[in-house]
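Sequence in, structure out. Go.
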Amino acid sequence: MKKVLANKEIDVNEEGYLLDFTQWNKEVGNSLAEECDIVLTPRHWEFIEYIHDKYNKEEPLSIRGIKKSGEFDVKEFYALFPGGPLKKATLIAGIPKPKSCI
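Output:
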């Protein structure tokens, strides 16, 4: 299915996740965040960069992994991406929903 984000036509699945990561850029990320009622701050972008790094290394993402990373506080992660932080953060980051998310 197609969706227009940041004046670009983007391929997404039924949950709104991008089907092609190469279509993602910061403007698309900002548009996705707006749809989630999130205004991205520099700290949000740090989490998104961490998520991209894990995705590029093909490492699985989980809340437990974020906690164990020592780079981020899980409570902060929940505060920045309320209502399902890993689902929302990965959606905004333009990567597939992690298997650890229901």
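Check: Residues 2-93 form one domain. The first helix runs from residue 26 to 35.
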